[in-house]
Amino acid sequence: MGVVKFLIVTIFLCSFVNAKPKLPSFLKVCHRNDPKLKECIKDSVERLRPFLAKGIPEFDIPSCEPLLIPEVSIDQGTGSVAVQSNYRDIKIYGPSKFTIKNVKIDLDKNKVRIKLWIPHLEISSVYTMSGKILMMPIQGTGACTGNYTNIDATVSMDGEKVKKGDELYFNVKDFLVDFNVGHAQIRLDDLFNGDKELGEAMNLFLNDNWKHVASEIKPVMEDTIASIFKKFSNKIFHKYPIDAILPE
Ligand SMILES: *[C@@H]1O[C@H](CO)[C@@H](O)[C@H](O)[C@H]1NC(C)=O
């Protein structure tokens, strides 16, 4: 679900882009000295929502309904959740239904922080898993689905200004994602080679303990997603100078 933050950041970055060169007209320009800069950013993101749902080819932004992630692997060697798992063809439904709670910008320190809330995400993928969760052996491969509700997320970008030619560009050095899920309902099909009874029991167990399971997996997910989005945001930042992205 941290993937969602990628989107939000994408939206956020795009909302900064000036209409000067060949930039699309649906981007609202925000001026860095606007005393209502935060409101401007929130506003431009609201305007972008339908474009994000469809995708924005000009910015290499794919459709986010659903958002697609080819593959994520998690290798937890030790601890109460010691599993090797792989998820392919991840589809995330619902990320465009976000609400921006707060925007914080410190231009001098090159820091941006966005807090947002997402009411509901439905995620499906094809999983392969083996290991132990809270002492219980787990093994299987098949469809993995889940509903995640009441999600609070924070995206933090820490960057630097880099001179190229006559222009200053922004470069993101650290990209951090943090999310907290209010509730999760998950389902792993075909656990234990399709053994129905064992599979049902394990699904009950996982859902009873979802908070614990999620907290073990969370850092890996956050890092994976953050690195994808760091690359992505730098693609945009390296293309347009700061004066074009955030004009005076
Ligand atoms: C998620 O919610 C949808 C409908 O809202 C439901 O059809 C589906 O079974 C749910 N999935 C899980 C794993 O609970």
From TrEMBL:
<protein>
    <recommendedName>
        <fullName>Protein takeout-like</fullName>
    </recommendedName>
</protein>
<keyword id="KW-0090">Biological rhythms</keyword>
<dbReference type="GO" id="GO:0005615">
    <property type="term" value="C:extracellular space"/>
</dbReference>
<dbReference type="GO" id="GO:0007623">
    <property type="term" value="P:circadian rhythm"/>
</dbReference>
<comment type="similarity">
    <text>Belongs to the TO family.</text>
</comment>
<dbReference type="InterPro" id="IPR038606">
    <property type="entry name" value="To_sf"/>
</dbReference>
<dbReference type="InterPro" id="IPR010562">
    <property type="entry name" value="Haemolymph_juvenile_hormone-bd"/>
</dbReference>
<keyword id="KW-0732">Signal</keyword>
<dbReference type="Pfam" id="PF06585">
    <property type="entry name" value="JHBP"/>
</dbReference>
<feature type="signal peptide">
    <location>
        <begin position="1"/>
        <end position="19"/>
    </location>
</feature>
